[in-house]
Amino acid sequence: MKDFSDFFRNPRVWDREIVAVGGDLSPERLLYAYKNGIFPWSDQPILWYCLDPRGIFDLEKLHISKRVKRKINQRQYKITFNRAFEQVMRCCAYRPGEETWITDLFIRGYTEFHKLGYAHSIEVWDENGVLGGGVYGVAIGNFFAGESMFSFVPDFGKIGLYHLFDVLKKDGFTLFDTQQLNVVTLGLGAYQISKNEYLRRLESAAASGKKWSPPRSIP
Questions:
Q1: GO molecular function of the protein, one example (predicted)?
Q2: From the candidate CATH numbers 3.40.50.300, 3.40.630.70, 1.10.10.10, 3.90.380.10, the one assigned to the domain spanning 55-218
């Protein structure tokens, strides 16, 4: 892995949330950043963050409503992985009337990261084969960073997250990062831990650096 320690402040000793300004979204820089608890959150210029506190999920404690559970059990959808990564990113970026940090620069950078096997998407298709929801994020070792989720069909994003968690648990993942809490993630069971605790867990979870190979689809 290429060393970017001269570019990023060390979040273990740096007491501010922004740890670098500028650079690019090359796969090498993204890999170094995520392995060290850092992520980009805006461009012009690119700002790199390590938040304190940090939002995470317990993979065993996703909160799903009875309504969503019924939809999961009805199986009126199809689940795939990495079939439409860029499309999922663009759907996550589609927020009429709102600004989004998922710009074309981010889409290009993470699509290259995806091609190298570190960024992944889960897609939820309706019965007509139309993409209705999905999630994308970054996986390194037994660590997954959830970047964004969308639902064009009600609850399809949550259905995707449910199946993503199920596969991650089976594959031995130990840390799911959601960066910062919002109304949706809080309702799904996300909670906060200190930056130092997060970095300790991350060091263990991402230590192997291995790439994740999810199933092509869920029967």
A1: leucyl-tRNA--protein transferase activity
A2: 3.40.630.70
Could you give the percent of the chain with pLDDT greater than 90? 95
Q: Cα(39)–Cα(101) distance, rounded to whole angstroms?
A: 12
Question: Other C-beta atoms within 10 Å of 212: how many?
Answer: 20
The tokens for 99 are 């600004």
Reduced to 3 states (helix: H, G, I; strand: E, B; else coil), residue 71 is helix
pLDDT at 1: 77
Q: Provide the residue ranges of all domains of the chain, joining segments of one domain with +.
A: 55-218
What's the pLDDT tens digit per position in 24-61? 999 999 999 999 999 999 998 999 999 999 999 999 99
CB burial class (10 A; 0-12, 13-18, 19+) of residue 112? middle
Beta bridge partners of 20: 48
**Cβ atoms within 10 Å of 80's Cβ, excluding its own:** 19
Confidence (pTM): 0.96
